[in-house]
Design brief:
single chain; 155 residues; mainly alpha; 3-stranded antiparallel beta sheet
């Protein structure tokens, strides 16, 4: 019987297509997460007064740092590694690889929300946090795509 592919070969081809989608999603998410960590996250100041912009490394009351930046950059590095491994298929990637760093980054951002927006005077959200959240979203999308490889639908 020529021209009939085995189910295992079909599964491998489908997995390769999934990895070609999930890997770049994780890579783009990692880049956005890293860039977002150094972009301004919040602007403090009242109308008519001086405004101070803070990035992920400068957050906190007064001049204090609450250590979000290094954690976000570390999570971006892990997500980048997961994206490279997924895209190049060094071994069978699983959904936890991109899920772990974005979960850590998301929890750190959620846990520090009140510290970011409570240093006293009015504050406004800037693009850095939004870019980080977009990177987290792409990392989660990568995990969802990899979930499809781990739990294929049966016919």
């Amino acid at each position: 019987m020529t021209g009939v592919a085995s189910p295992a070969a079909d599964q491998q081809a489908r997995d390769r297509r999934i990895y070609r989608v999930a890997g770049p999603l994780a890579l783009i998410g990692a880049v956005l997460l890293g860039i977002g960590a150094v972009m301004p996250w919040v602007t403090y100041g009242a109308p008519g007064k001086a405004h101070v912009q803070r990035d992920g490394f400068q957050l906190g009351a007064a001049i204090d740092s609450i250590g979000i930046g290094p954690v976000i950059v570390g999570a971006a590095g892990l997500l980048l590694l997961a994206g490279v491994v997924t895209a190049l298929q060094f071994w069978h990637p699983n959904l936890v690889m991109p899920l772990f760093p974005v979960t850590v980054a998301g929890l750190v951002i959620a846990n520090s929300w009140n510290q970011v927006f409570s240093p006293g005077g009015p504050s406004s959200l800037d693009a850095g946090m939004a870019v980080c959240l977009l990177g987290i979203g792409l990392g989660l999308a990568s995990s969802v795509v990899l979930l499809r490889a781990e739990h294929p639908r049966t016919r």
